[in-house]
Design goal:
One of its GO terms (biological process) is proteolysis. Belongs to the UPF0758 family. This protein has eight helices and five strands. It folds into two domains: 5-94; 103-213, 3-Layer(aba) Sandwich (Cytidine Deaminase, domain 2). Helix 2 crosses helix 3 (45-58). It is of the alpha+beta class and 228 residues long.
């Protein structure tokens, strides 16, 4: 059972932890609680934040104003506040061409899928200098059961005029070690990329525990590049 915010010592509450430790120390629910500010009569701010996150983690694109206001305790003002915060964050990330330079940066750009209860595959396309073009969620469900065909991945890469791609998928179990299927999929995409001249620059496995980079671990037999 989750603790209500009134049962949490004041120094351990989101706003106080933010002041003391900085934003990186807070969970996604705590960060959203800080944005919301306060809860409703029926629910405290952490409970509201958790309910909103359940929607955002399933499909951020479907978190419309109508969907958010269907949550008891989230009125139009709070829903607008949430949508505005996410839109601002998105615009700042791509302002003047965000350049992806490290696996850790890639992990930070995909924190939203670390807590998802099902496996999810994200695709990021970049240009020749490593500048961010677009991010998409391609699949949801176990990668071991879902066929990840390079054709779908590179369809979007070609559409974006991309030089390279990054793949990111989460392990809901928290385990960061790649499975044999993960390795096979990565090798297959890397080989297809070499033929097309659109290179797989890295593949990250992510969870709330951190990340595993195929490139950093020498498991990426694709294009040799210094961007990450």
């Amino acid at each position: 059972m989750k603790k209500r915010i009134k049962d949490i010592p004041k120094e351990d509450r989101p706003r106080e932890r933010f002041i003391k430790l900085g934003p990186s120390a807070l969970s996604n629910a705590e960060l959203l609680a800080v944005i919301l500010g306060k809860g409703s009569k029926e629910k405290d701010v952490l409970q509201l934040a958790s309910e909103v996150l359940n929607i955002l983690e399933k499909d951020p694109e479907k978190a419309t104003l109508d969907t958010l206001t269907n949550i008891k305790g989230i009125g139009q003002a709070k829903a607008i506040q949430i949508k505005a915060a996410f839109e601002l964050a998105k615009r700042l990330l791509i302002k003047d061409g965000l350049r992806i330079t490290s696996a850790r940066q890639l992990f930070q750009l995909n924190m939203d899928i670390t807590g998802m209860r099902q496996e999810c595959l994200a695709l990021i396309t970049v240009d020749g200098s490593g500048k961010f073009i677009k991010r998409r969620i391609l699949t949801k469900g176990s990668l071991n059961k879902t066929i990840i065909h390079p054709r779908e991945i590179f369809f979007y890469a070609i559409e974006d005029g991309a030089y390279g791609i990054f793949l990111i998928h989460n392990h809901p179990s928290g385990e960061l070690t790649p499975s044999q299927e993960d390795i096979k999929i990565t090798q297959r995409v890397a080989e297809a990329g070499k033929i097309l001249g659109i290179y797989l620059l890295d593949h990250l496995i992510v969870s709330r525990k951190g990340f595993f980079s195929f490139k950093e671990q020498g498991l990426l037999n694709g294009h040799s590049d210094s961007q990450t």
